[in-house]
Amino acid sequence: MRYKIPLKRAGAALVWFLISCVTLPLAAQNISLRARDITVLEVMERLQKDYGYSFSMEAGTVDVNRKVSISERNVDIRTVLDRIFGGEDVVYTIDGKIVSVTVAQKPQAREEQRQGPAERVITGTVSDASGPVAGASVVIKGTSTGTYADLGGRFSVKTSKANPVLVVSFMGLKTTEVEVGNRTLPLDIIMENDENVLDELVIVGYGAQRKGLITNAISQFKPGEDNARTALSPSELLQGRVAGVNVSTTSGNLGTAEKMSIRGSSSLSASNEPLYVVDGIPLNNVTGSLYSLGEDLSSLSVLNLTDIESIEVLKDAASAAIYGSRATNGVVLITTKQGREGRSEVKVNYSMGVNQFPNRNRIRYADSASWIEVYNEGIDNYNRQMGYTRESQGYIQHIRNPFGNLPDTDWLGVITRLGQAHNADVSFTGGTSKTKVYLGANFAYQEGVIKTNDIQKINLRANLSHKVTKWLEVGGNMSGNYLKNNRVPGASIGSTIIGRAVEQRPFDRPFKPSGAYFLGGTDELSRHNPVQILTEETSTVTNYRFLAALWAQASIVDGLKMRVSFSTDDAYTFDYLYYNENHPYKEDNGRIIEKNRFFMSNLVEAFLTYDKTWGDLSLGTMAGHSFQKTSTRNNSIDAQNFPSPSFDTVGVAANIAGVSGGLSEYALESFFGRVNLSWKDRYILNTTIRADGSSRFPKGGRWGFFPSVSLGWNVAKEPFWHFKAADLKLRLSYGKTGNQDGISNYGYKPLIGGGFNYLGESGIAVSSKGNPDLSWEMADQYDFGFDFTLFKGKIEMIFDTYLKNTRNLLYDMPMHSTTGQTQKLANIGSMRNYGVEFTLNTHADLGPVHWASSFNITHNRNTLTSLLGNDIVSIGSNHALQVGKEVGSFYLLRFDGIYQYDGEVPDAEYDMGVRAGDIKYYDLNGDGLINDDDRIITGSPNPVISGGWSNTFSWKGLNLNVFFTYSQGAEIYATWLMGPTRMGNYQALLQEWCDNRWTGPGSTDKYPRSIYSFHGNNNRSSTKYLVDGSFIKVKSVTLSYTLPSKWTDAVRMRSVRVYVQGENLALISRYPGWDPEMSTSLDPQLFGVANYGVPSPRVYKAGVNITF
Amino acid sequence: MKRIVITILSALMAATSCMSLLELDPHNGVSPSSVGTGDIEALRNGMYKCVQENPGTRSYIMFDLWGGCLTAKQSTNYMDLINSYASSLNSEIESQWQGYYKALMQVNNVFSIAKGLPEGDLRNKVLGECHYFRAWLHLCLVTRWGDVPLMRENTDEKVPRTPAGEVWSFIYEELGLAVDLLGTPESVYYLSRDAAVALKARVALYMGLKDEAATLAESLISDARYGLDKFENTFRGALGKEVIFAFACRTADNSKIAISTLFYSYNHPNSGSYVYAPSAEVMGMYSDDDLRKEISVTTLDNLNFINKYPSGQTGTDPVVISRLAEMYLVSAEAQGVEKGGARLNDLRKARGLRPVYPSTEAAFIDAVLQERHLELLCEGHRWYDLVRLGKAESLLGIQPHMTLMPIPASEIQANGNIKQNKDY
Question: Which fold has domain B1-63+85-182?
Fold first, then answer.
C-alpha cells in the first residue's frame, strides 16, 4: 500500500500540528487517559485537545454518545481506540495524527472476495472544492484493499471483486461511496465538506479554539500557492480577502506604508492600525523609514510571507479584548508554519516576473501645439484684462516652442521602466514524535516601475520544538529578516518623481545638447528635472528585524498547564539619503542625511490553562500575566560638503550641519484571563478580561480594564434541527477595548526640554506642557452574526453586523495660542462605526470543471458623535471634522460652473481679477466674496461598500484563479488634478481641458478659460477636483498546472506546480487617474487625497513550486 | 525534577510582575519643578532660541511679502501673494501668530524664574532681556494684528484682545525697563542697552513720540562704536560696525530660519528653491550709483533675485533686527523736513547717492519712505511703514481692511473671546 503524507489537503492537518506545537502540549506517542462514564465523543475531544489527534468519520458510524470508562497509562493510540470503539463494527486507519474511522466489512464479504472474478485495476482522481485531495484514502468496500491518492489526487487500486464499490474518505470531507460498475476509467470522484467532522482549530489570543466553539467575528486567511500575490507585507495579502478589512497604500512604489482599517476608523489619532501578533509576539508599530522622502515605508514588508501558515483577523471586540489597550483597531494574528511528525519535506518555490506602470493612457496630457496655443491665449486674455498694448510696460509676449519641431518628450517614459522581479524560497519541514522542525529561507529581488527603485529581501526562519519529558516541552520560533529598499521620492516632497516628470511642459527636455541637465525652476525647465533627481540621489532604507520567542510548557496536573515564554522584537533601521553635488538639494556641495534607529521590545509572559469536562458541560480557563518593555534609540546626522559624488560616507563631510539623538522607553504590564463554558457544544459562553497598565499614563489613571463576553448557539446541534444538509450557528458578543497608540511615551508629563541652543551654548525651554488627565481611548463594540451552511457546505454564509462606539477619543485639541501651545492631546469626543459584513463561499460543478468562489462585501458607516461643540473644525486644507458627519469628510468650495459674462462676477471678485470664463463658486454666506468661509462639508473618502471576489476553476491538474476587488462610493480629492488644469500656467495640461476650455459665452459651463497670472481663482480647492473613486479591479489572474505524478515521480519529485500570473490587469472606474486606491495621507482625518503617486504596478510573472 | 522545573517556571511567572517599572522618565527633558535659578544661563539661551525660531522664517520678511516687494515665482503680480495671505486660514499667518505667542510663553517663563535671582548683574541682564523680548514680540503682534491679547504673565485663561493703545504703552514701558537693566553688548547676537535703545527709538517713532525717537536714535548715531558700513560688511556674514542687534540663526544651533533658500534658484550658484522673486518695482528702484544695489538684488539668466541673504540652500544667515542706518532714518523722520534732511542725506551719501532737498514735510516723508524702502529691503519694514504713514492703500492698491492681518481662524475657534478683524 502506498503511503503518502497528505499534502494538498494539509491545511486542516497543519493547523493541528501547529496548535499542538504552539499552544497545546505536543502529541505524544504514548497516551495517558483516565475517565469514568465519559462519552466516546469526549474521549475523542480529549485525544484531540491533549494529543493533537483528529478524527474523520461519517456520522452514525459509531455511537459517540455511548458512555465508556477508561484508565490507561502510557499506551499507544491503538490501545485507546480499541478501548473506546470496542464492540463497534469499525476499522480505523491512523495516518500520522489523523484517525479515520469507517464501518468494518462483514465477514461474509471477505468470502465473496476470495471467490471473485479476475483482478482489475481501477484508476481515478479525487478532488474537492479546492482541488485534488492528496492523501484521500480509497478502499474497496468490504475489503482491506486500498490506497491513498497522490498529490494530484490520483489513485490506482487493484481488485478482483465483482461490482466493486470504492469508499473514499479524507479528514474534513464527507466519506463517499462510488459504485464502479461499468463507468469509464479513470473515475472522477468529487468529495464534499463534512460538517460532522470535528472542527478545525482557530487561533485566538493566547490559545486556540475549536471552530465550532468560536463565538466571535474572526476571519481566517491562509496564504497559499493558489491565492499568492506579489506582496511584501501581510496586510497587502489581506487586500480584498476578508470582509470588514480595508487596505490602502500611499503608492505603488515598493514597500510603501499601508493602512489597514478593520471595521472603519475608530480613532482620530493618526494610528488606526491593528495590533499585529506574530506567533504570540506583539509587533511594535513603527515606521519602516526614518526620513520622509515624500512617503513613508512599511515596517511589515520586511517579514517573509511564505512562512505564514494562517492569518486570523480578530474583528470584534470580544475576540480582540484579550489584547486590551491595543485592540480597538482590531488584532491580526499571524501564525507561521511549524514542523511536523512524519516524512520530511523540502519545498522550493521560484518565480520571476516583470512590473509595469499600468493604465498609462488614463491620463492624456496636451501636446506642444495645444499647450502653446492655450498658453498664448492665456497671455492674450491677460494683456486684454490688464489693458496692455504692445507698448505697455508689463505687456507679456507670446511664447514659441524653443525646440521648434523636435518631438515632444515622453516624460513618463523617461522615468519609468519594466522592472524585473525574482523570488526564491526554500523550506524544510520534518520531525519525530519528540522534535519538530520548520526551516525556511527566502530571497527576493524586485525592481519598481520607476527607475532606480528596487528592493532586496532575505528572510531566515527556524521554528523548533522538543518534548523533554512527557510533561515538559520547550521550543522556539526565530526569524531574521532583512530588507533593503532603494527608494524614489514619493508624492509629498518637492522632488516627487511622478509630479516632476508629468508636470513638465511637453516640449521641455531633460538634457541640453551638451549633455548637461536642464535645471528645474528656471525658464528652461519649469519643474525639477526628474532625471537629475533619480540619477544624482541615493536613498536606501535598510531594515533588519529579529523576532524570537522561546517557551516552555509544563503539564502540572491533569488539565492544568503552565506556559512561560520570553520573546523579543528587535529592529534596526538605517535610512541613508545622499544628494550629491549635482542634485538640486545638494545644499552645501552634497548632503548626506543618515538616520539610525534601534528598538528592542522584550516581553515576558506566563499563563496557566485549565480544562475540565463534567458530563455535557466543558470548561476552559486561562489566566496570565505579561510585562513588555520597549526602548527606542535614534540618532541622525546631516553631513554636507563632499569632495565629489564618489565620496558617499559622512566621515568625509567637511560640514556637519546637524546631529541629533534620543532615547525613549515604554512599558506595559498586563493581566489577562479567559473562561469558556459550553454545554453539549450547543450553548457556548466565552468571557475574557484584560487589565493593562501603561507607562504612558500618570499613576492615577494608569490601569485600564477591558472585559468581553460572547455567546454562541449552535442551532444545528439542537434536537429539533432536522435539516441534515444545513448548519447554523448564531453569535452575539460585546467587548471593551482601548487604544493608546496616539500617545507619545511621556505625553502626560510637563517637560523642560534640551536642545534649544544658541550660539553654541546649550539651552533649555518648556518643550511640553503635558496633560495629567490623559487617559485611555475606549471602545465598546457589539457584534451579532451567524454562520449558515447549506447543501452540505456547498454554500457557506457568514454574516456579521456590529456597532462600535469609541469614546475618550485621543484628539489634539486646538488650544488658544496665548497658552504657548497650539494643541494639547486630550480625551475628547466620541465616534461611532456601524457596519455589516457578509461572506459567501460556494462550490459548484460546471460540467467537469469545479468552480469555487469566495465573495465578501462590507459596509461601514462612520459618524463623529461628539467633539468640542458643533463647530466645523477644519483639518488640513481639504477636510473637516463636524459632529454628525463622517471623519474624513471633505471641506471644499462648491464648483458652480463658469461665469459666462463679466457682469455676473461679484464686485469684490472682479477686483481680484475674476472675469467671464473663470470658475464660479457657491457663495455660502452671500457676502459677495469667495473665501474659506464658503466651504461646505461634502463627500467621504471611505467606500459605502467594498470587498473582493475570488474564483477558482479547476479541471484535472489545471487551476485558474481570478480575483477581483471592488469599492463603491468613496470619493477622492485629486490634488494632482490642480496642476494640469491650470491653463495659462507653466505646467503640463490635460488635453481634455485644453480641448474644452471656455472661449466665449456659452462655450462651456465646465472648463474655465486660459488666463496668464490670474489663474488662482480657477485653481482653488473645490468640488471640481472631487472625483468618484469607485472601481472594480481584476486584481490577479493565476493559471497553474500541477504536473502528473508519473512525470514527477520519474524525476523523484513529489509535486511540481507551474503557474503564470498577472496582477492589476484591468481597472474599471470613472476615476480620471491611474489608480483610485492610493491616498497621499493615511491619516483617517486626511484620507482620500490623491497626489501624483505611483499606481500599483501591473505584474506578469511565472513560477514553479516543487516539493521533494 | 518536575517539581523543580515547575517551581522555576512559577518563579519566572512571579518575577514578571514588576509594576514599579511602569514609572519611566524621559531622557531629553526634565520636570519643570526641577528647574530653577541655577539653570538660568541655559534658560536664557533657550529664550533667545525660541524668540528667534518660533515665528518662523517668513516672519522676518512678512512685511516685504505683504508690502509688494516680492512676488511668488512665475507670477508678475505681487497682489496674488498678498491676497493669499489675506485669509484667516492662511497657514503662514497662523504660524506667525502662534509662533509669537509660543515665544512669549517661553519669555514669561524665564521672566518668572529670573525674578527669583539674587540682585546683581546677572538678574539685571536676564530681566532686561525678558523685557526687551516681551516688547519685541508684542511689537510684532500689534503691528500685524492691531488689538492683541497682552501677556504680562503666563496664563491658560482665554485672554481677549487688548486695545492696541494699551499694547503700545506696554511695549514702550518694557523697553524703558530694558534700557535701564541691560548693559554693554557681549556681542551683536546678544541683547544690550544699545539694542533696547534702538528698538525704543523705532517704537517711539511708530507711536508718534518724535522727540524721544530722535533723541534715542541720535544717542546711537553719536556713539563712536557704531557707524554706517558697507552693505558687503553687513550682509556677507561679517556684521560690521553698523549692526546693533541681530539674531544669530546659526545652522550649527539647528536654526531653521532659512530665508536665503526662498530667494535663489537652482541655477544660481547660491542655489535655493526660489519661492519669491523681487517685484518689478523693486528691480527698478535702485539707480546704478546706489552702492546697495548689487547686495540688494541681482539677476542671472533672466531671473531676478533678492541678494541680501547669501547662504543659499546651505543654511541660514543672521537676521538683523537693529542697525545704525535705521537710526539715521528714524532720526530723519522724527525731526522732520527742517532738521531731519541732514540725517537723510548723510545716509544717502554713504550709499553713493546725491542729496535730496524736499521742500514740504509730505515730500520729505515720501523721500524718507523711499529711502527706507531702498535701505531696509527684505528686513521686515515695508508694509508697516506704508500702513503707519497711511499709504498702503494708495501705493500698494490693497483694500482698506488689509492694513491689518486676519486673526487666524484656528485662534478664534479656540478662544471664543477673540473677534476677527473687520472685513475678514
Answer: 1.25.40
